[in-house]
Every structure is written in structure tokens, then in C-alpha cells.
């Protein structure tokens, strides 16, 4: 069969080429004779010749910008946004073959009058029937997933013809915050959040909740699901509670214990990072310099170890409770967390205190009914008082001692384990860090390492293994794109460079584009490299004071002991991943979404933003 393929994106840069090459290869695999016409700003358009046009049995138009269609009148034509052709060109051609219809003169005018994806939809009436969408993205660390998910949603919204505005709630707080007018005009709200965020401003709107991972990997499906399945959220300011029979289907505040735990960890993390680095700075003057009263080293140790590390467990417990019960849970949660620290129960006790306080406060809020005259006292007096009393008594008389015994056993095991146990623990933690690159298993290992920092000296080894292993997949993917350049397309090589830089910063998500494209090869080699790095780090007895920062932490003297051995561990695992993937990778496959657009603050994504993406 003779097929004509026409591709065009708004900026006419990379997306045009990616789609045309993917469709051309898919057509050849089917035995079709394909002729391609690309609309690009980088080189003149070469129109399809008369002979090819007359012989064509099918015309496939993958375009998000106007193309001249009158020449195809009478031919079987299939037209769709270019974004639909990128993920699976074979499936796209299957739809084209079955869904193509004869093009008539009456159909040409409206098709050419408006692009498939409008560049700048009008604020009051989006062109092409697009529906206004607002979204919020947030992940526990607020670094990579938050912004990658935002960019993926922005790109998918543009590809589907829906103007979208995304607010990111990262480690530096809210960026590009949504305005009241934007929320009011939105058709649907997407909350792609792995932690709890204040959703009271969306009361009365149709809300769809999902994870950052889902928004990143299945962005178009996320938008479609939101438009089809989102449910109206009820509630008042300060009480963002989804209600109604369909609210749970859309994902309500009760996101489950895992989400509440990640919320607490996300608020605790800056405290741990700051405290760990301050402790490391005190070691610049000597390992025991802090023992000299009145010295700068003593002051740094007092700030980092005496204040920051003492507050980390109360902060963890307080915001776990806040995630469960909103603001009434903070006070009892922090009180329970402080008691956990005083009782020696550590971060395990803090987690228990947070859940006890949160669920107690929520039960009081929901089930204790008071006269209207004293109802206003419930959130500021009755709930904090009763929940704090219950949490405190449970911690002192029930939970505290067993949790303290468990923490003592864990820290004792870490301090006295032999090299064989250390290697096994390092292998396990390293493999977990590389299994899903920021997913639940990765976060479980990371949370374990962060929590152990509260136990003090002797518990810094697992954190070193965890951070080192988390750096390996993105560094390895970058190395693979350099070692086997002929197996990687140009977009993949560019993604490899970005992945390498992100890996050095301990942002494991830099390898996600490669994992999403080729999981059966990327995941096994990543696990192998991560396990090796974790095992070597634990075997060498490396200890790390801060839970983030990548190689930049090494700039602080004594933040990491055995620096050269630590670098050797990371290099060994990265080489295993890089060489392994370079060896097993086959062909030259494009990476859809390897480059991400710069998010626009306007409803519609302009041509400049398209150029960044395409």
C-alpha cells in the first residue's frame, strides 16, 4: 500500500522529525511504501510529488499546525494531533488505516481554518472546543517529580487541545500559583500529588487526584480521566474534605497511610538536610572540636544536632497528623513526636505518634457533635486538648517503650554488624533505590535512611549507600549514551546529557525517560549497578551526614568520610549500568518527551514554549 505521511508541529522543530521518522519506520515494517512531507522551520518543505500523490492509497496527517489539505480531496485521509503519533506509531497507523475517510471539499475549509491544536486559545472560549484545566503537582522531596510531572501535563494538555495551567509545589514552595480567576474558570482540577496539599480553594470544582508518577508517564490519559471521571469536591476554606458518593473514586483527602507518611517526610526533609550539613560543618574544625565550649564548632553542633535533629521527629509526626486531620492534628502530632524523641523511640515512634494523633483528631472532628454555641471551640481547644492527651498517654504507657527497644536494636545492629551483613543491607537498599526511580519502593528505602539519621553516630552508613545508589541509574544512562552513540538517537543523547547532570545531583528521576521507553532492559541493569554501589559503600564503611545534595555534599569537609572510596562505589555502579545498557540496547529508538517544554504562565502555550518542547 502507498501511504503519504505529513507531520507538522506549531514550532516545526524536533517533534515534526520525531513523528515523521517513527511513522515512516512503522510503515516500512508493515511493508507499505511511505512518502513523507515534514513541515519544519529548519529546512524548506518539500511537497509530495504528483506521482506519489496520485498513487497514494492512504494519507496520514499527524499535525498540530495548519497544513494544506485541498490537494488530498478524494483520497482516504486520517488526521490527528501530532502528539498522538509519538508514543506508539504502529498503533497510530492502525487507527489511520481503519479510521480514514474520503476527504471532501466541504471538509477541507474547516480543517484548514483552525489548527488541530490551537496555539493561543481565547481565555473565554478556547478554540477547538478545548476545556480549561488547572493542575497542582507535588512530590515528597519537591525536586524532580514535581516539575517533570508539571511539564508532562502542560505538554499533554497542549497536544490534546486543552489550555492548562500548572502550579508546582516543590522544595521552594509554590511556583506559578494559580489565581482565583483561573480556578473559577477551570473545567476540572488535577491534583497530581504524592503528598497532601491544601485543596480547600478547589471546593465546588470537579477534582481528579492522581500521583506525580502517573501524570509523568501517562499524562494524556490523566487528562482524559480527569475530564471524564472527576467529581465535585465539597468543603469550606480550611476544611478541604471531598464528599459525595463519587468523591472516593476521584481520590479524596484520605490518601492512605503511605501518602500521609510521605507528607510528613517531605516537611521533615529540609530540617534533616540543614541539620546534617551543620553537623558536618562543625567537623571542619576537627572531629571533636565541638566539645570545646564557646567555639564556633560547638555552636554549629548545637544548631544542627541540638536543635534541627531534635525537631525532625516532632516535625515528622506533626505533619503526618496534619495530612490526616488538617490543622487540628498538628499540635497533638508534634507533642507525640517530641515525646517519641524523649523516650528514645526515634523516627519509628514519631511515625506512630503522627498516625495516632492524626486519626484521633480526625475522629474527634467527625464524630463529636457539640452545640452550635461551642462548636467554634472544637478546632482550637477540644480537639488539640483531647488528641494531645490521648497521644501523649499512649506514647508514654503503650508505644514508647517497645518503639525505643526496636530503635535500640536497629542502631545496635547497624553499629555491630559484620561486613557480610553490611554488604547484604547495602545491596538491598541499593536495589530498592533503583527499582522504580522515585516510586514507592525507592521512597521506602529513602525514608528508612533519613529516619536513621535521628539515631546519631553509627546510623549514617545506610544513608550513604542510599544516596550513592540513587545516583547510579541517571549517571549510567548518561554514560551509555556516550559509550554507544550509534544506538542512541539525537534526542536520546541529549536526554543522556541531562540525565548525567541530574545523577550527579542525586536526582534519580533523570533516568525515567529511558526506563519508560525500555523498562525490561533499563530496570535490571539499574538494579544491578545500584546493588553493587550500595554493597561497596557499606563494605567500605562510608558514612554520610546529609540525605541530599549528590556529589556537591563532598565540597563540605567531613560531610562524607572515605571520600575516595565513596566515589569509587558510585563509579563502579555507574559503569556497570552504563556499559551494561550500552551492550543490551538494540536499535535506535526515539524518546518521546526526552525534552520538556518550559511551562508558560498563560492559559495557552505559545509558540515559544512549543519551540522549547518540539
From TrEMBL:
It is an enzyme of class 2 (transferase). The chain crosses the membrane at residues 267-287, 299-321, 333-359, 380-399, 419-437, 466-484, 522-542, 563-584. Its main location: membrane. The keyword Membrane applies. Residues 257-598 form the PTS EIIC type-2 domain. Keywords: Cell membrane, Kinase, Membrane, Phosphoprotein, Phosphotransferase system, Sugar transport, Transferase, Transmembrane, Transmembrane helix, Transport. GO terms for molecular function: transferase activity. Its EC number is 2.7.1.202. It is found in: Cell inner membrane. It is a multi-pass membrane protein. Residues 1-98, 131-228 form the PTS EIIB type-2 domain. InterPro entries: Bacterial_PTS_Sugar_Transport, PTS_EIIB-like_sf, PTS_EIIB_2, PTS_EIIB_2/3, PTS_EIIC, PTS_EIIC_2, PTS_IIB_fruc, PTS_IIC_fruc. It catalyses: D-fructose(out) + N(pros)-phospho-L-histidyl-[protein] = D-fructose 1-phosphate(in) + L-histidyl-[protein]. NCBIfam families: FRU (TIGR00829), PRK10474.1 (NF007783), PTS_IIC_fructo (TIGR01427). PANTHER family: FRUCTOSE-LIKE PERMEASE (PTHR30505), FRUCTOSE-LIKE PTS SYSTEM EIIBC COMPONENT-RELATED (PTHR30505:SF0). This is protein-N(pi)-phosphohistidine--D-fructose phosphotransferase. It comes from Archangium lansingense.
Amino acid at each position: 500500500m502507498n501511504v503519504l505521511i505529513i507531520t507538522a508541529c506549531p514550532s516545526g522543530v524536533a517533534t515534526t522529525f520525531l513523528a515523521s521518522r517513527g511513522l515512516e519506520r512503522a510503515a516500512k515494517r508493515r511493508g507499505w511504501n511511505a512518502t513523507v512531507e515534514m513541515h519544519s522551520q529548519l529546512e524548506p518543505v518539500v511537497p509530495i510529488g504528483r506521482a506519489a500523490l496520485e498513487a497514494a492509497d492512504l494519507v496520514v496527517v499527524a499535525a498540530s499546525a495548519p497544513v494544506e489539505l485541498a490537494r488530498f480531496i478524494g483520497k482516504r485521509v486520517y488526521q490527528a494531533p501530532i502528539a498522538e503519533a509519538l508514543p506508539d506509531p504502529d498503533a497510530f497507523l492502525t487507527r489511520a488505516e481503519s479510521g480514514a475517510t474520503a476527504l471532501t471539499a466541504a471538509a477541507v475549509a474547516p480543517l484548514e481554518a483552525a489548527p488541530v491544536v490551537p496555539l493561543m486559545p481565547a481565555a473565554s472560549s478556547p478554540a477547538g472546543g478545548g476545556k480549561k484545566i488547572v493542575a497542582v503537582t507535588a512530590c515528597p522531596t519537591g525536586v524532580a517529580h514535581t516539575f517533570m510531572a508539571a511539564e508532562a501535563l502542560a505538554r499533554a494538555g497542549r497536544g490534546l487541545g486543552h489550555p492548562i495551567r500548572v502550579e508546582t509545589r516543590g522544595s521552594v514552595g509554590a511556583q506559578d500559583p494559580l489565581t482565583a480567576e483561573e480556578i473559577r474558570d477551570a473545567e476540572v482540577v488535577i491534583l497530581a500529588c504524592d503528598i497532601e496539599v491544601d485543596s480547600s480553594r478547589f471546593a465546588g470544582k470537579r477534582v481528579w487526584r492522581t500521583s506525580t508518577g502517573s501524570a509523568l508517564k501517562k499524562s494524556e490519559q490523566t487528562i482524559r480521566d480527569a475530564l471524564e471521571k472527576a467529581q465535585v469536591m465539597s468543603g469550606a476554606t480550611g476544611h478541604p474534605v471531598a464528599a459525595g458518593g463519587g468523591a472516593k473514586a476521584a481520590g479524596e483527602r484520605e490518601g492512605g497511610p503511605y501518602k500521609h507518611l510521605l507528607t510528613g517526610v517531605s516537611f521533615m526533609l529540609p530540617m534533616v538536610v540543614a541539620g546534617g550539613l551543620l553537623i558536618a560543618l562543625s567537623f571542619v574544625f576537627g572531629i571533636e572540636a565541638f566539645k570545646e565550649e564557646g567555639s564556633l564548632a560547638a555552636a554549629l553542633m548545637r544548631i544542627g544536632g541540638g536543635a534541627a535533629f531534635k525537631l525532625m521527629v516532632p516535625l515528622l509526626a506533626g505533619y503526618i497528623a496534619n495530612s490526616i486531620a488538617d490543622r487540628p492534628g498538628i499540635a497533638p502530632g508534634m507533642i507525640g513526636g517530641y515525646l517519641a524523641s524523649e523516650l528514645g523511640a526515634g523516627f519509628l515512634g514519631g511515625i506512630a505518634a503522627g498516625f495516632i494523633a492524626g486519626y484521633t483528631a480526625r475522629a474527634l472532628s467527625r464524630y463529636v457533635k457539640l452545640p452550635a454555641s461551642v462548636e467554634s471551640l472544637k478546632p482550637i481547644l477540644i480537639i488539640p486538648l483531647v488528641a494531645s492527651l490521648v497521644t501523649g498517654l499512649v506514647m508514654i504507657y503503650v508505644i514508647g517503650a517497645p518503639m525505643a527497644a526496636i530503635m535500640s536494636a536497629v542502631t545496635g545492629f547497624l553499629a555491630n554488624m559484620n561486613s557480610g551483613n553490611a554488604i547484604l543491607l547495602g545491596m538491598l537498599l541499593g536495589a530498592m533505590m533503583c527499582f522504580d526511580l522515585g516510586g514507592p519502593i525507592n521512597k521506602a528505602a529513602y525514608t528508612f535512611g533519613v529516619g536513621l539519621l535521628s539515631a546519631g553516630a553509627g546510623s549514617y552508613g545506610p544513608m550513604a549507600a542510599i544516596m550513592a545508589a540513587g545516583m547510579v541509574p541517571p549517571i549510567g544512562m548518561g554514560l551509555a549514551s556516550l559509550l554507544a552513540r550509534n544506538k542512541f538517537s539525537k534526542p536520546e543523547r541529549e536526554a543522556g546529557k541531562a540525565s548525567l547532570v541530574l545523577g550527579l545531583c542525586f536526582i534519580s528521576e533523570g533516568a525515567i525517560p529511558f526506563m519508560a521507553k525500555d523498562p525490561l532492559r533499563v530496570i535490571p541493569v539499574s538494579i544491578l549497578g545500584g546493588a553493587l554501589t550500595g554493597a561497596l559503600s557499606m563494605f567500605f564503611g562510608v558514612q554520610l551526614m546529609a540525605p541530599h545534595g549528590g556529589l556537591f555534599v563532598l565540597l563540605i569537609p567531613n560531610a562524607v568520610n572515605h571520600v575516595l572510596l565513596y566515589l569509587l562505589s558510585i563509579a563502579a555502579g555507574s559503569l556497570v549500568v552504563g556499559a551494561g545498557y550500552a551492550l543490551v540496547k538494540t536499535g535506535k529508538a526515539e524518546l518521546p518527551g526526552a525534552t520538556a517544554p518550559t511551562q508558560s504562565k498563560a492559559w495557552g502555550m505559545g509558540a515559544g514554549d512549543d519551540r522549547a518542547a518540539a
